[in-house]
Input
Amino acid sequence: MIDLGKKIRMERIMDRDAKRALIVPLDHGVTMGSIQGIEDIKRVIIDVSEGGATAVVMNKGMIAQGYRGYGRDIGLIMHLSASTILGPSSDDKVLIGSVEQAIRMGADAVAIHINVGADGEAEMLRDLGFVSEDCMDWRVPLFVMTYARGRKVKDPYDMDALRHAARLGAEFGADVVTTNYTGSAETFRELVKSVPVPVLVTGGQKRRSDLDTLKIIKECIEAGGAGAAIGRNIFQHENPYNMTRAICKIIFKGASVEDAARELKKKGDIKTK
Output
């Protein structure tokens, strides 16, 4: 039986009835700098929380900047690993925080990023092992972002490589795994079947159209996925609130892509203090 402390925390970041989640990563400031859409973290959090997202992922230094003290609550996942695109190997992630620090910051869960196939894979796996042990001790949910990236990886979207990466996360004790889309509902279904914990599809780079994003999420849900972790395709959208609502309609209401897309045309401002 799942530990009560972890169960309570999981219900803050995943919908307790649907057992699904929409996570919005907002940790790009370390990797990519102050890119468009995250200049005002508090504004983004207002949009995505009121739009129905279940949690955000943030680096420790930005938690205070995003705290509101009003409006709809949203789960907080503190990111524990990082690299930059300016460094010699952006695929190699290092630890920048701890589970205990996340608890002190008020986080409901922690996230760690692993690139299977990267030069620094061994060090990342070692760090994941230590973080997983701390999560078990403190009853803190662990999100593992698993990707196939590095010199030995020919195709980062290869189903077998992604299935290996996702399974690795579960083997190390992840409560939720996030990974790239494999290209079809059929292949993503095979990936989900091979991983005994909830799997979320990631949004990746900004896509050409909103319909592309919504279609991928719909196919993920139909394949048995537990939701999505969407960053740039939400916070760089011209209306992050409406985009969040559209995605939530698919994840939590089972809406079609066409029905969800109608949310993008609605008008209305979010009232804030």
In short: Residues 249 and 255 are 6 Å apart (CA to CA). The chain has a mean pLDDT of 94. The chain has twelve helices and ten strands. The radius of gyration is 17 Å.
